[in-house]
Design goal:
Elements: H1 16-35, E1 39-51, H2 54-60, E2 94-106, E3 112-118, H3 121-124, H4 128-142, E4 146-151, E5 169-174, E6 183-187, E7 195-198, E8 207-210, H5 211-222, H6 241-246, H7 255-268
Parallel strand pairs: 3-4
Antiparallel strand pairs: 1-2, 2-3, 4-5, 5-6, 7-8
Helix pairs in contact: 1-5
């Protein structure tokens, strides 16, 4: 079953890491028949490391695998001659996140022709990781590869680009032969997802990436309808978008009822 929204599904932001890691392989599978045998589509990953508050861990639904021990307990018993530390400090919660991206590679030369990124909160959150991603973006451009950057997130400031149109979502396509200019596909919450070009080597016709077809495939195969509507989207809607979005929810889903169920389960546990 396809996503019920006419364009981007805003409820997917609550499970973004899972969606991100399913979307890129689906996009690769969509591209391979168009570009083979001259090109290879590979999946690589960026690794981000950052401090994150405990309440944000819980909001993002990311498991914290750290072993927590009670005050005064120790992982081991100090033997003779082992000095006790004079003080203790609490380190911040730290998260590391691996995020996939796609490379389209020339089969003969093994040179990267095109890089395709689906932005994540790690890219858009101000700080070291955003700086890391901007540095990678510059390196791709200097290295002679096309760049396709897909932003399907309402939250966080957009990646900088001079002349970027005002919009909620956007796709950037930066071609090697048109530096520093880039093409934009801006669209909003209520707009359909576009089909975008994926540039290749000179003389080859662009591949095409149907964002709607890929989203629907991931949505259906992942069973998202069964659980992503159990809470309000984050970030919350503004203006009349909440009423508009409610009309597209599956008929068996009611956010308020789901919230009450979740509260009852929590109180009873």
């Amino acid at each position: 079953m396809p996503s019920p929204f006419p364009g981007m599904n805003p409820d997917l932001e609550a499970i973004w890491h899972d969606f991100h890691e399913r979307f890129l392989p689906a996009a690769a599978a969509y591209l391979v028949p168009q570009v083979r045998p001259k090109y290879i589509v590979t999946i690589d990953e960026n690794v981000y490391l950052y401090d994150i508050p405990l309440d944000e861990y819980q909001r993002l639904g990311r498991p914290d695998l750290a072993v927590i021990r009670g005050e005064g307990t120790s992982m081991c018993t100090a033997g003779p001659g082992v000095l006790e530390a004079p003080a203790q400090g609490l380190l911040p919660n730290q998260d590391d996140e691996s995020l996939s991206y796609l490379n389209i590679v020339d089969r003969e030369s093994r040179e990267v022709v095109t890089v395709i990124e689906l932005l994540s909160p790690a890219n858009k959150r101000p700080g070291e990781n955003r700086a890391q991603d901007l540095a990678k973006r510059s390196a791709v451009r200097r290295g002679g590869a096309h760049l396709v950057e897909i932003d399907l997130l309402r939250g966080g400031p957009p990646m900088p680009a001079e002349g970027r149109p005002e919009c909620i979502y956007a796709v950037l396509v930066s071609r090697v032969d048109r530096r520093r200019w880039a093409d934009f596909w801006p669209f909003g919450l209520r707009d359909p997802l576009p089909t975008i070009p994926v540039p290749l080597l000179p003389g080859d016709i662009d591949a095409r990436l149907d964002l709607r077809a890929i989203l629907d495939r991931v949505y259906d195969e992942s069973g998202y309808e069964d659980y992503i509507y159990r809470r309000e989207p984050d970030p919350p809607f503004t203006g009349d978008d909440a009423a508009w979005a409610r009309a597209f929810l599956p008929s068996t889903t009611d956010r308020q009822t789901m919230s009450e169920i979740a509260m009852t389960v929590t109180e009873g546990s």
